[in-house]
Amino acid sequence: MKALLGLRGLDNQLAGLPMMSTMNPEKSTISDDQRVEIKGHLSVVYSNMAACHLKNKNYRRAIENATAALAQDPNNIKAKFRRAQAKLADGNLAGAEADLISLGDSVPGVKAEKEKIKKLTKEADEKQRKTMGGFLNRGRIIDDEERQNEAAQASQSEYEPSTWSGTAPKIQELAEGEV
Questions:
Q1: Where is this region: Disordered (predicted)?
Q2: What is the CATH number of the domain that holds 46?
């Protein structure tokens, strides 16, 4: 944490340096190389914090820290991979897939994470089809066991009118021919 505070202090000094350099050009002590180095260190610290949050299953904080690392250094591969892992664990499959695609397949572990996403996407699609498939009996997925159960129920059940309505007994009398 002290490293982050120290680096953020240097980063804040960088933000104020342009104004200071116009007032006193001799006191502008941080060069462009140092500026890039500080941003690189900040990116690494944020990326490591993201790894800690990922390990502790605090996925939202892991995403925030990985994004902060990428703001400092957009080419930080570890930060992008960690953000993808956190998004995947948090349930954001599309966001995780976008991060992994931007990394490419040459990075170790990307293929395995993409396979996880494919598997989870397939499971989610299957679950949605089963829950929404019965909507108005269109597109309902019925396996053999369900089909047999429905056939058995249909053959065993007889018409039993509901008794909540006063017309049900009359309908039953008409059906039985007791008028």
A1: 124-179
A2: 1.25.40.10
Report CA-CA distances (Å) from 76 to 39, 68, 73.
11, 11, 6
Domain count along the chain: 1
For 95, the domain range is 2-147
Instruction: State the residue for tokens 């939202």.
Output: 60
- AA identity, residue 65: N
Q: Identify whether 163 is part of a domain.
A: no
- Rounded CA separation 2/8 (Å): 10
Q: Does residue 171 belong to any structural domain of this protein?
A: no
Let me know if residue 153 belongs to a domain.
no
Residue written as token pair 């941003």:
39
pLDDT, one tens digit per residue, over 33-84 is: 888 898 999 999 999 999 999 999 999 999 999 999 999 999 999 999 999 9
For the question of whether the overall pTM of this predicted structure is more than 0.90, the answer is no
User: Does the structure show a pLDDT above 70 at 17?
Assistant: no
